[in-house]
Amino acid sequence: PPPRRVLLLGEGNFSFAAALCGARATHVVATCYESEEQAAGRGGAARSIRRLRDSGAEVVFSVDCTKLKEHFVLGKREFDRIYFNFPHCGRKAGVVKNRQLLAGFFHSCAEVLAQEGEVHVALCNGQGGTPADQPRREWHNSWQIVAVAAGAGFILSHVHPFKAETIEGYKCTGYRSQDKSFCVEGALNHIFTRSTAPQCFTAMSCQTQLGSQKVSFQVPQVLVDKINRGFLEVNSSHPVRTIKEKLSAGLSQAFPLQNISSCLPLLHQGHPGGVCHSNIFWITLSPGEAPSTEKMSQGLADAVLCSHFGQDTDENGQEGCPDPEQFYLRPSLLPHAQAIIKKGAFSPGTLQVLSGPVFRKCRITPHSMPAFHEMLVVLTVSRGTGNSCVQMLVDSIKTTMNSLHQGTSGVKPSISLQEAASFGTELSDFAAFERQLGEIQHFLCVGAEPDPPGCCVGVIRAAPGELKSHELVVVSASLNLDLLAMLLCGISDWRMLWTWDRRFLRQFPEGELRLFKSFSLYPPCYVHDVSFWLPDGQDFDEVAFHTLARRVSGEMVVSIQLRDNFQQPGTGRRSLCYRVTFQSCDRALGCREAAEMQLHLREEIQQHLGVTLR
Fold first, then answer.
1. Phi-psi region of 301 (alpha: psi -120 to 50; beta: other; left: phi over 0)
2. What is the DSSP annotation of 332-350?
3. SS (H, E, C) 284-332
4. CB-based contact 127:148 (threshold 8 Å)
5. What are the FDX-ACB domain coordinates in residue numbering (predicted)?
6. pTM recorded for the entire structure
7. Widest CA span in the chain
8. 164, burial (CB in 10 Å: exposed 0-12, middle 13-18, buried 19+)
9. Of 513, 518, 511, 481, nearest to 496 (Cα)?
10. Inter-CA distances, 174 with 53, 85, 178, 396, Å
């Protein structure tokens, strides 16, 4: 529908406003900074003002775009769209003054714009400083419009050419505060929308079933926005659920299928064998709620992944004492599958499908996720038909994924099965962690042709030795549904899957997969360095450092790169310097907020990692 109330700011000769005033069901409020006497003296302005008033539009003079609330009474402050074409401080004002003008303007817009409203800002070619400008100016020599808008809570949602020639009667004017036109060739219209507000997550307690008893535990702060989101629930239209359902439907064409994901416990006990302790989210049950040993042995025997206990860690990954009574958030659904196999609770030839969120501490990289949704498929067949059935399972997965990929992008994907032995040593965090869980036969990779092997999205493995039998062959396929959603829907940042912004799910009607169009274009990034001395004689846990950065920034850190590793002559003390890049994929992040995050990170690493800041 057309906007109900439109505000135009900084009109020179009012020709742009006059071109809009004929729109039905739209009330136009056209303003300029000058007095009526000054404005009417511009060529054609008097005629445009008369036309506006004759059509019922409001014309207001001496309006300061940085103090909009002062110019409109309470009942008439809310606008559905605000236009500001070619803002400028006047005369020979430089980029710094014009950034300050835009900053005041955006903060003022926040007070008068409707919740779902838009702010349109037209700038000459190169001024905005975004990749849409051709040629693009150096960042310091641009108006940095996206970063300036972010400081007031706005994100750039669209950008398109400003086609002055298509606007009937429009004539640009105001070059250096004079009644002269200026070049608008290559000009761009930047459309901003409100960002979701920063999420203020407080400490959260979660209740889960542990054996025959319900217990509560404190959720690690970095996972507060990822626990109990319900992406796989029946009423969800989230793409991870759609992919899971379509994969299940495709697999059911080749095998009978049974879903057994309803009551898988979130917590495991002890320490997962073979898994690095710093990759685990350790949990302490709420006081007085630890189950008895008898209840634990009865209720959790099937969920224990380990055969030995490793070192305990706190929320930040620091080492402690091993504790058989310690609990941790499940990093994989594999132990549940192994429990099913061990008990013989399956029908040979039937696919057992388990799915749910899993949690792993990991480094900050584009495809490393502290939480994602796993789909685990287990097939048990008689040894005589084992090889053919396993091949049928692999072919069915590949066929279904091919169909999904072509359905969303129209591009034929490259889906390959890579032998584990030939996959190389440079593994993604997902693949590396899966290798810790047990021997892998194949890695399942998806990539755009002709660039194999692509991104690892799953692994295929045989049952461990203690679960093998002479009569049966057991094979499992573990798939990362979040990575699949990114690749199939063209989502470049995994954090977008967890956004609270409703514009994400609006793009995915129930049961449909589509190519995602970002509603936050060219988000600004802010680079800070931090250097510190390490404690004498201690190794530095990078995973703990990255997890701490995730928690402090609320997942606003997109990159941590080691810049320098210095050892002081004589003393042997080691110093590390890291470059930390802050950037949001879905909400406004201003430079001041990023700087505050950096200061907080410095405090936290000194307190929790025992380093000495330089």
1. alpha
2. -SHHHHHHHHHHT-S-TTP
3. CECCCCCCCHHHHHHHCHHHCCCCCCCCCECCCCCECCCCCCCEEECCC
4. no
5. 521-614
6. 0.89
7. 97
8. middle
9. 518
10. 22, 11, 5, 65
CATH no., domain 526-613: 3.30.70.380
Count of residues in the chain: 614
Structure tokens at 465: 């030795």
Query: Could you say which DSSP state residue 361 is in?
Result: -
340-348 contacts at long range (C-beta below 8 A, 24 or more positions apart): 340/260, 340/378, 341/378, 341/380, 341/463, 341/467, 341/474, 342/302, 342/467, 343/302, 346/378, 346/380, 347/256, 347/258, 348/380, 348/381, 348/382, 348/472
- Fold for domain 4-194? Rossmann fold (3.40.50)
User: Residue 306's closest CA among 188, 163, 438?
Assistant: 438
The confidence score (pLDDT) of residue 297 equals 42
DSSP string, 91-160: TT--HHHHHHHHHHHHHHHTTTEEEEEEEEEEE-TTTS-STTSSSPPPGGGS--HHHHHHTTTEEEEEEE
The predicted structure's pLDDT at residue 453: 53
Question: What are the tokens at 91?
Answer: 């005369």
Beta bridge partners of 442: 419, 460
- Structure tokens that stand for 161 in this block: 């050419």
pLDDT at 437: 82
Cβ neighbours around 298 below 10 Å, total: 12
Q: Are 377 and 383 in contact (CB under 8 A)?
A: no
Query: Same topology for domains 4-194 and 526-613, yes or no?
Result: no
Tokens 């690690």 — which residue?
220
Name the phi and psi angles at 163, rounded to 5: -100, 90
Q: Encoding tokens for residue 15? A: 């020709």
The pair of three-digit structure tokens given for residue 276, joined into one six-digit string: 């690095």
- The 10s digit of each residue's pLDDT in 436-483 is 887 888 888 887 544 445 688 888 887 765 556 667 778 889 999 999
Residue 516 backbone dihedrals phi, psi, to 5 degrees: -80, 135
Q: How far lies 333's CA from each of 177, 318, 354, 476, 529, in Å? A: 67, 25, 7, 11, 38
Specify whether the CB–CB gap between 448 and 454 falls below 8 A.
yes
Q: What fold is seen in the domain 204-286+324-495?
A: BirA Bifunctional Protein; domain 2 (3.30.930)
- What are the structural domain ranges in the chain? 4-194, 204-286+324-495, 526-613
Instruction: Report the distance separating Cα 569 and Cα 115, nearest Å.
Output: 59
